[in-house]
Amino acid sequence: MYHYIIILVLFILSVLGDSLTVLRSPQYVTFRDGQWPISGEKIPDLVALTMGFSIHEDLDWPGLAAGSLFQRPRANALIVVRGLDSLDFPKNISSYPLENPVPFTLDSVANTVHTLFADSTPVVLQLAPSEERLYMMGMANTVFEDLPVTLQQIRGRLSQDGSVLTSLPLVSLSRNNEADLLFLSEVQVLYDISALLQKHKHLAKDPAPDLYSLELAGLEEIVRRYGTDSPQFTDATRILTSALQKFADDVANVYSNNAVVEVVTVKTFEAPLTRKSRSILESKQISNTGNPYNLAYKYDYDYAVVFNIVLWLMIVLALSVIVVSYNLWNMDPGYDSIIYRMTNQKIRMD
């Protein structure tokens, strides 16, 4: 009876609660099928593990299997959608209930990328269009230099040719409504990022992994203005679902299926997020003068390969020494050694 209650609770969480959905992942990053809930505060640790980084505390979550020692994704893209608990993605995609939906950021993962690959040019893009919050590092300053990030810039982009206002069937959504424009501006940002990635496919050849973090709140404004039973909400969820799937396909294509794309859908966060705002198009690198945080030494992208080569070579050499030492210890000098055998013959001849 107890097991049935647990199954029922997990089923209710998977249907009614917030969710984490994995749209794309390489073959060597395995997400197990199941309805294991994961806490919102553990999402940054999950992203770090999928990229092959270590974390301070073990992630006690069975949804992610142990990864390959020799491969790790070239990029990770996480999109947070506020305003609803789930989207209508295909059934064959891994999805997990999200519990304790507290606000989180990927700042720790971005700092790890910068620390480990300071000599390379990783792409780190963190963007929240509705709050005009942007942080870019490395090659992102060049690739996404022309990306509209402020609401004024995005509205200007919507008026240009090829925008989502002309390419998408808006149906019940209006270009004259503030809430609708906010939602469509975030969809436009997704399309523009995809277009820039397709234009700069050389990003995937860089040895440093890339990190993308987007927070979309336009759907939350749609819900606040029209409600979840409105045709505007239905059309918005349809447009957003299609845009996210296209974005995932484009990222996977640019990185040759060596990228992880996750979507977190949360109806509302339990607590407001307080964080320092960063300047638009920030290009200043993080300084680490004198190593004040006692960080470990830096290693390159081939660290895992070199480590395994050295480890197994040492094991083979150690076993060889043990075998040779054992045979020498149990050797009969008068019978097994040619040196002693020739010495005995010379003594007899004398």
From TrEMBL:
How does this chain sit within the bilayer?
Single-pass type I membrane protein
Q: Which residues cross the membrane?
A: 303-329
Gene Ontology biological process: positive regulation of Wnt signaling pathway
Q: Which Pfam families match?
A: Renin_r, RENR_N
Annotated signal sequence range? 1-17
Ranges for domain Renin receptor N-terminal: 17-267
GO MF annotations, alphabetized: signaling receptor activity
Subcellular localization, as worded in the UniProt entry: Cell projection, Dendritic spine membrane; Cytoplasmic vesicle, Autophagosome membrane; Cytoplasmic vesicle, Clathrin-coated vesicle membrane; Cytoplasmic vesicle, Secretory vesicle, Synaptic vesicle membrane
Annotated Gene Ontology cellular component terms: autophagosome membrane; clathrin-coated vesicle membrane; dendritic spine membrane; endoplasmic reticulum membrane; external side of plasma membrane; lysosomal membrane; synaptic vesicle membrane
User: Boundaries of each Renin receptor-like C-terminal transmembrane spanning segment domain copy?
Assistant: 275-350
Q: Which UniProt keywords apply?
A: Cell membrane, Cleavage on pair of basic residues, Endoplasmic reticulum, Membrane, Receptor, Signal, Transmembrane, Transmembrane helix
Oligomeric state and interaction partners are given as: Interacts with renin. Accessory component of the multisubunit proton-transporting vacuolar (V)-ATPase protein pump. Interacts (via N-terminus) with ATP6AP1 (via N-terminus). Interacts with ATP6V0D1; ATP6V0D1 is a V-ATPase complex subunit and the interaction promotes V-ATPase complex assembly. Interacts with TMEM9; TMEM9 is a V-ATPase assembly regulator and the interaction induces the interaction with ATP6V0D1. Interacts with VMA21 (via N-terminus); VMA21 is a V-ATPase accessory component.
Q: What does this protein do?
A: Multifunctional protein which functions as a renin, prorenin cellular receptor and is involved in the assembly of the lysosomal proton-transporting V-type ATPase (V-ATPase) and the acidification of the endo-lysosomal system. May mediate renin-dependent cellular responses by activating ERK1 and ERK2. By increasing the catalytic efficiency of renin in AGT/angiotensinogen conversion to angiotensin I, may also play a role in the renin-angiotensin system (RAS).
What is the name of this protein? Renin receptor
What is the scientific name of the source organism? Answer: Cyprinus carpio carpio
